[in-house]
Every structure is written in C-alpha cells, then in structure tokens.
UniProtKB/TrEMBL annotation:
The active site is at H22 (proton acceptor). Belongs to the PTH family. HAMAP family: Pept_tRNA_hydro_bact. Monomer. This is Peptidyl-tRNA hydrolase. Keywords: Cytoplasm, Hydrolase, RNA-binding, tRNA-binding. Its EC number is 3.1.1.29. TRNA binds at Y17, Y68, N70, N116. It catalyses: an N-acyl-L-alpha-aminoacyl-tRNA + H2O = an N-acyl-L-amino acid + a tRNA + H(+). It is an enzyme of class 3 (hydrolase).
C-alpha cells in the first residue's frame, strides 16, 4: 500500500477568500503546519505556500496552492515533479458539498464530482486520478443555483466550529493514513461526526 508523502490543501488565495467554505482543504493543511510548529512559506517554484514537516515519524510535504482553485493542478504537478512523487503518494484535502459540516471522508481515485480544483489536479497529473482525497464536509445549500455563492461564503459560527472539530479527528487518523493503513484510518474517521 502506498504511503502518503504530501498533503495538498485546496483553496483560493487572498484575504477575501480565507474564511470561505471553498478553503476548507487549505484550513486543514494550515492547521497541520501550525500543530507541527512549522510555518508555511511562499515557494515560487511550487506556485504556493510550502512546508516540510515531521509528522507521525516521517517527513511530509505540505502545500497550499496560491493559484485560484481552478488552476490548482499546476502547483500539484510542480511539487510532484520536484520531489518525484507519484499520484498515489498524494492526499488532496478539499471541501465537499455532499457531506455535512463536522464530518470528513477518505477516498482514493474517482472523478472530480464537479469540483474545479479536483478537475484541474486530475488534468495536471495527466488524467491520473489515483491520488487520495480527504473530503471535508461543508454541506449543501439545497439548490444547485446557490452553490457558487455558498462555497464562496463564510460558514456560521456553529458550522465553522464543527469543521474545526473534525480537523482534530482527521489529525488523529492521519498517522494511519500516512502509513497506508487506510482501513483503520477510514474506520475511525468515517464514524465520527461533530454535530454542527
């Protein structure tokens, strides 16, 4: 089973997007960097903010692409080329409309499900979609026409607290995921819910 060597948090750059639901993946990677006491620094060659941390006994690359969401793939491809990473050594953290706030799911492979960041990552990796995903629940507005405004909106206080709570559970399951023990990581994470 493949080990995870890099975690990429998808989001949009700039202060106007920092607190928006679409940046849930970026929030997680920022939390891991903070908890590892390692600042993310601007790294031009990776088109993003980068840190190398020691987590769960191994070195791990963290990346926040600073391109816009629909151009995330360029940063991911640059990181893979530089460190010679295979797609199945990546864990891409992203917001997910199909699961509720306070829950998260691991997944490997599959399509992009309409997520522009995932769509561009798959394209940039030569249509290889074998990378691992961490789906962070943000819920759905209930009407497809409201999705854009919803993902680019800010969560309420209870909703954000639920998302932050699931981050703690994600970090507790990451050592298993990083080692490639996906069954154990999924078993714990998928049974967790922080009711928001």
């Amino acid at each position: 089973m493949s080990q995870v060597k890099a975690i990429i948090g998808l989001g949009n750059p700039g202060p106007e997007y920092d607190d928006t639901r679409h940046n849930a993946g970026a929030w997680l990677v920022a939390a891991i960097a903070r908890d590892s006491h390692t600042p993310l620094r601007a790294e031009r060659k990776f088109l993003g903010h980068y840190a190398k941390v020691h987590f769960a006994g191994q070195d791990l690359h963290l990346l926040l692409p600073q391109t816009y969401m629909n151009r995330s793939g360029g940063a991911v491809a640059a990181l893979c080329q530089f460190f010679k990473l295979a797609p199945d050594e990546l864990l891409v953290a992203h917001d997910d409309l199909d699961i509720v706030p306070g829950t998260a799911r691991y997944k490997q492979g599959g399509g992009h499900g309409g997520h522009n960041g995932l769509r561009d990552v798959i394209r940039a990796l030569g249509n290889d979609n074998s990378f691992h995903r961490l789906r962070i629940g943000i819920g759905h507005p209930g009407d497809a026409r409201q999705v854009t405004n919803y993902v680019l909106g800010r969560p309420g206080k209870a909703e954000r607290a639920a998302i932050d709570t699931v981050f703690g559970e994600i970090e507790a399951t990451l050592p298993d995921a990083i080692r490639g023990d996906w069954a154990r990581a999924m078993n714990r994470l998928h049974s967790f819910s922080a009711e928001g």
